[in-house]
Amino acid sequence: MSVSGSGELWYRDAPRYLQETFDGVHAIFDPATGETHFLAELPALILTAVDNHPVTAEALLDRLMGSDDAGRAMDQQVSATLQFLAAAELVESTPSAAI
Amino acid sequence: MNLLNRFLNDPVIARDWGVGEWNRFLPLARNARLLGRSLALFEQHDLLDVVPQRLVDQLRGALAQTRYVQVQALRELRQVARVLDREGIPLMALKGVAYLVADLPPRGWRNLSDIDLMVREGDISRAELALQRKGWQPSGEFDAYDQHYYRAWMHEVPPLKHVNRDTEVDLHHNLAPPVSRIRIDAARLWDEATTASDPYGLTVKVPGPADMLLHNAVHLYMNDELRGGLRDVMDFRDLFEHFLQQDAGFEDQLLKRAEALGCGRPLYYAVSTAQRLAGLRPSVDFVRAVQRHAPFAPIAHFMAWLIEQALAPSRLGLRRSAVAHQLLFIRSHWVRMPLPMLLRHLWRKALKSKAPTSSIQETPG
Amino acid sequence: MTDHKLILDAGPFKVGVRTVDSAFAKTLDFFYRDALSSDAMQVLDYDISIAPPRNLRRWIRPQMLFGIDGAVPFEPHPVENAFPMFEWGLNWCIATSAHRYLMLHAGTVAFGDRAMILPGTPGSGKSTLSAALHLRGARLLSDEFGLVRPEKGDLLPMPRGIPLKNTSIEAILEFDPAAALGPTYPKTRKGRVRHLRPDAQSLLAQHEPAVPRWLVFPKYQAGSGEILQPLDKAEAFRQLAFNCFNYQLMGETSFRAAVQIVRSADCYTFTFSRLDRAVEQLSALADPGGEGGR
User: Fold this and answer.
1) Shared-domain flag, residues C169 and C90
2) Domain limits at B281?
3) Considering the domain boundaries, does residue C261 fall inside one?
4) pLDDT at position B350
5) What distance in Å separates the CA atoms of residue C7 and residue B93, rounded to the nearest whole number?
6) Please, which residues bridge with residue C191 across strands?
7) Residue C43 within a domain
8) pTM here?
9) Is residue C257 in a domain?
10) Does residue C254 share a domain with residue C124?
11) Based on the domain organization, do C146 and C281 belong to the same domain?
């Protein structure tokens, strides 16, 4: 079963961030923290998805990869990326599925 | 009263200012940390067109810095609130950060360097532990004596700072050290607290309006940091005017609350100082009622003189100003610690010591 | 003792300078004659005093204090180092207050109104490179502070004496033996220092902005050749932000301004060891036809 099947709900509750893309690198300015981040494709994609609507890691994975072998390999990456975004204070999580 | 005080009292006088006034104004406002506040006053009174553009740039530069520290303060508050919320620990924001989260007028210009928070006395150990588990560490070097001083004599645990960030968190369980003569009963603060929230899920308690002013007054009365204290005097005036506008009976509430909390004396100092140095215009009745809490007249006069020397020197860098700061510093320790402990040593030292800081040559004009 | 009261035009800033030290006043005149006046009726950004202390150090191994707004933010310096202390102190005043501008830690020179920004940490060689480019005819904007107006994206000049440290002094004299260098300060906190005087043209043009066209990250590396390489925009952005004094403080404003600079300028890294070849290569950027850099 997937690593990210813990049911945690990921969301972003903050003013809209600014995003500028330079050749596949995404510069992100977060007004909530005043920080500037440089994100690769996957973190930027996940951030956009979470920002659009609260989502579980499982739902994210499905959206990104489907449920084949490649998808299971992505599982770890998606979890790690969510942790990274949370440490950067760009997203938060709550154990409850209801927000 | 210096030029800055006269401006705070009546901003419109700036219309008649020439080069000489502007060149005196900028260092005074910069020294008092009132650049941002001054910009707001110029804007409020339609005076921007008379301010030299280069000075407007200096004021805007100061405001940019203020916006940054405000973002960082709210960011830190949000992170702390999240941790304590999960622990079920009620949290109250105090002073600058409370003005921000409660969206009070000082939000337009108020600088702050750390955040002041309060939890109930019974919760403070648990709160400190929870924060330390989540990455907050004691900020700075503290030996056993320092830690003891903080915990036993002061009203704080040593300041905390998260490993990933720069903002200091001062966690209190009361507003005054338990050994001082002025004791504010923390439980009563919680009784009058209101809830402040922002659009992004942050919810904390803030003191009720009267308590916000009394905290400001007590902080001024017992303050160690007197340089830049004029900023706090302006906070008192701005909050007073705001709450009075919201509720015509506010002066009465403030008075009653001060008497209930035993803060008549600090209220007297706060009101009289704000009247003299920051353009506060309370009603005659209120002033008369507050006057009843004044100290013995010679002391009142001496304190007024000391405060004016420290907060509103006629020229910057005056030796008199530095001496006044030192005397007030000593006095504020006096009200924190039992009198016998301090009197013998400190007063002798005070009378013998030289002015601490500036040894720069006084220049005329 | 004469009480000198001067006003220095330092780009967008007007700086009052009060001193009784005539040697220091003379040095100011050497560097900034075209930008100094004694007209007292100007609104000042900073009112600086260079004055002796009140204690024994007024006479014994005499010292000078840098004063601003009636306070003394730094330790005293030996009186013979009054000029470097003044320069360094003024930079501190600007860096801690002038947040109306984005402040890049960069050398900035201009070819006409087209600016080349050379951001760099100490040791990158940006000051020496700026000095050399200036000596070859580029307009000096600054060797230290790229002042950007965020709403316009342009650079404001603030031409000041360029401090050259230790071996850079010899390198510049070798590059141009006629370079107008000021006095030698053998024992400052940064070692041996001499300053290159900005030329009269740069001082006269100090209120004319320039538009960033080239963003070049220099790195002095002894024995290397001169290697100019295009830099990808993401990395250029990251390094520009890193080399900006008040990037974090300015929040969204600096993000947007940095994006604009990086998008509109040609971005490079530049490793160099020989000043003459370095100046040749960089000037060629500004003037590919090779007709002379102005």
Assistant:
1) no
2) 3-352
3) yes
4) 45
5) 46
6) C188
7) yes
8) 0.87
9) yes
10) yes
11) yes
- What is the Cα–Cα distance from C128 to C274, expressed in whole angstroms? 11
In one-letter notation, the amino acid at residue B116 is: D
Residue B285, chain C, CB below 8 Å: the answer is: no
Residue B143 has a pLDDT of 57
- Specify whether the CB–CB gap between B123 and B75 falls below 8 A: no
Residues C94-153 have pLDDT tens digits of 999 999 999 999 999 999 999 999 999 878 999 999 999 999 999 999 999 999 999 999
The verdict on C237 touching A (C-beta cutoff 8 Å) is: yes
**Residue A80 belongs to what domain range?**
9-90
Residue C282: which H helix or E strand, with range? helix C275-286
Task: Judge: B164–A33 Cβ closer than 8 Å, yes or no.
Answer: no
Residues C108 and C198 in one domain: yes
Asked if C252 and A20 come within 8 Å (Cβ–Cβ), the reply is no
Residue A1: inside a domain: no
Do C74 and C109 lie in one domain? The reply is no
Which residues, at least 6 apart from A78, have a Cβ–Cβ distance to it below 8 Å? Answer: A4, A42, A46, A57, A60, A61, A64
Query: Which chain B positions have a beta carbon within 8 Å of A87's beta carbon?
Result: 164
Say whether A4 sits in a helix, a strand or coil. coil
Domain residue limits at C65: 4-97
- Percentage of chain B modeled with pLDDT above 70: 77
Averaged over B313-338, what is the pLDDT? 59
Sheet containing A92-94: which strands, arranged edge to edge? A55-56, A9-11, A92-94
Instruction: Please check whether residue C62 touches B, CB under 8 A.
Output: no
Of B72, B200, B201, which has the smallest distance from its Cβ to A34's Cβ?
A: B72
**B273 found inside a domain:** yes
pLDDT tens digits, residue range C14-61?
Answer: 999 999 999 999 999 999 998 999 887 899 999 999 998 888 778 888
Mean of pLDDT values over B222-242: 79
Q: CB distance A36–C256 less than 8 Å?
A: no
| β pairing state of C191-196 and C211-220 | unpaired
- As for how many domains chain A has, the answer is 1
At B53-89, the pLDDT tens digits run 999 999 999 999 999 999 999 999 999 999 999 999 9
In a domain, B357, yes or no: no
C71 vs B358: CB contact, 8 Å cut-off?
yes
Last residue of one domain, picked from the residues C68, C97, C126:
C97
- Using the Cβ of B197 and the Cβ atoms of chain A, whether some distance falls under 8 Å is answered with no
- Decide if C42 touches B, using CB distance below 8 A: yes
Residues of A in contact with B200 (CB under 8 A): 13-15, 32
| Chain A hits for C232, Cβ within 8 Å | 22-23, 25
Would residue B364 count as lying in a domain? no
Considering its fold, how many domains does chain C have in total? 2
Residue B75, H or E segment:
helix B53-86
Contacts of C213 (CB under 8 A, 6+ apart): C114, C115, C116, C264, C265, C266, C286
Q: Which of B23, B68, B358 sits opposite C72 (nearest CB)?
A: B358
Q: Which amino acid is at C20?
A: V
**One domain, residues C141 and C234:** yes
- pLDDT top residue among C157 and B351: C157
- Predicted local distance difference test score (pLDDT) of residue B159: 87
Selected residue of C233, C248, C250, C260 to mutate for chain A interface (largest A Cβ count, 10 A): C233
Burial of C274 (0-12, 13-18, 19+ CB in 10 A): middle
Question: Long-range contacts: B347-354, Cβ < 8 Å, 24+?
Answer: B350/B326, B353/B326
Neighbors of chain C by Cβ distance (3+ pairs < 8 Å):
A, B
Task: Give, as one character, the DSSP assignment of residue C74.
Answer: S
* Cβ contact, residue pair A34, C251, below 8 Å: yes
Does one domain contain both C45 and C165? Answer: no
Q: Decide if C292 is inside a domain.
A: no
Please tell me the total count of domains within chain B. Answer: 1
- C226, C257: one domain: yes
